[in-house]
Amino acid sequence: MTVRTRFAPSPTGFIHLGNLRSALYPWAFARKMQGDFILRIEDTDQERSSQEAVDVIIEGMKWLGLDIDEGPIYQMQRMDRYREVIAQMLQDGLAYYCYMSEEELNALREQQMANKEKPRYNGFWRPEPGKDLPAPPSDVKPVIRFKNPIGGSVVWDDAVKGRIEISNDELDDLVIARPDGTPTYNFCVVVDDLDMKITHVIRGDDHVNNTPRQINILKALGGQSPIYAHLPTVLNDQGEKMSKRNGAMSVRDYEREGYMPEAVLNYLARLGWSHGDAEVFTKEQFVEWFNLDHLGKSPAQHNPEKLLWLNHHYIQQADAADLAKRALPFAQNLGIKTDNGPDFVGVVNILKDRANTLIEIAEGAKLFYMGRPEHSAADLEVNVPEAIRPAISDFITELEAGDGSKAAISAAFKAVLAKHGLKMPALAMPVRYAMFATTQTPAIDAVISLIGIEETKERLQRSIKIG
């Protein structure tokens, strides 16, 4: 048997981390089992669905590296197939026309609630042997209902929740086509899973209540139930269900804010799955380790601080040249012209250890490409005091005698500190301010090595008015 899984989002314009986790796990299982992963777009809600929303889903998956084997397959393009199946079900006595009007249905529900009964369709128009049905009313467009089995139970062994059993007496006859003939969600899902030979349905546990209805329809159509794994809800950092309304960020937002896709994937993987105590792992390791047995049974809670920590880790570990390519668009968005200054890869290399996001790298890079700062006399008097200027002059001399390497610059600092009896901050802070009009920079020896001896000399001399 070839394992076939699917991700079946509704394209309503917003996809958050909880949604993408529902793509990550079936993708990982398909890859682990050398099976197929299918993207199915459930776009029957035409009022809310849009191609732009589809693009957001596809871009988010591509950004995370979740490649697909089939799709995207659009439900709206399969309407003829759904109608064909419904027609066959009507012919085979598996479905029937129901002429109960909306008003009658509402009245029935109100009466049931008044009697403290569960509101449900009472099967009035359901054909049964020996049952006489009234003539269909001419002023009501019928829905089509599935003849749900009477008696017995629907039972399945959920890979996350364990054995689940629902009595068929709890289920009424589901509407599978609306008055205008449009098939309903639960019916379309079953036909799709059947036609696409889906073997494992890994999805959020908000679908648990749909599962017994879907299993009954699937069996009626001669299909075999897939293995179900219903994932607990992802909660936001306040403990509420993650949603746009509750402040969840879209996947695009994480990309725009400079998160690394490797970090987001690693983080998502741990939102409901574990492999021992492993917290940091590659995508390849995740696929190798993934199985359904280690899916969590309790709701996972979003932890922004942990995600930021992971992002910092991946930035620290990244190759500087690759990281520079990723950070470059963020630098360009800030108006930084990286061709007018030191090598951008070198700049990124000394910034990455302190950065949490690619935006922070870009913001740190401003320092190296903003040109020489304009100092006021008052600011220089405070930040580059007269007493320290002889040491800065000696520092320039030491720099000129070296080869411009980080080691030579560090040696120049040590020589001047020893000569003048100074501590490092007493010299480094004025040097930073003289060069950049700030006392906050990465390691100053690395910074000077990137800027270059000549440019450093010009900036220091200009600030202390030497030569």
UniProtKB/TrEMBL annotation:
Coiled-coil region list: none
The enzyme's E.C. designation: 6.1.1.17
- At which positions is ATP bound? K244
Question: At the top level of its lineage, which domain of life is listed?
Answer: Bacteria
* Cellular component terms per the entry's GO annotation: cytosol
Task: Give the protein's function.
Answer: Catalyzes the attachment of glutamate to tRNA(Glu) in a two-step reaction: glutamate is first activated by ATP to form Glu-AMP and then transferred to the acceptor end of tRNA(Glu).
* Family membership noted in the UniProt record: Belongs to the class-I aminoacyl-tRNA synthetase family. Glutamate--tRNA ligase type 1 subfamily.
**Protein name, entry field:** Glutamate--tRNA ligase
Native source organism of the sequence: Polynucleobacter victoriensis
Q: Which gene encodes it?
A: gltX
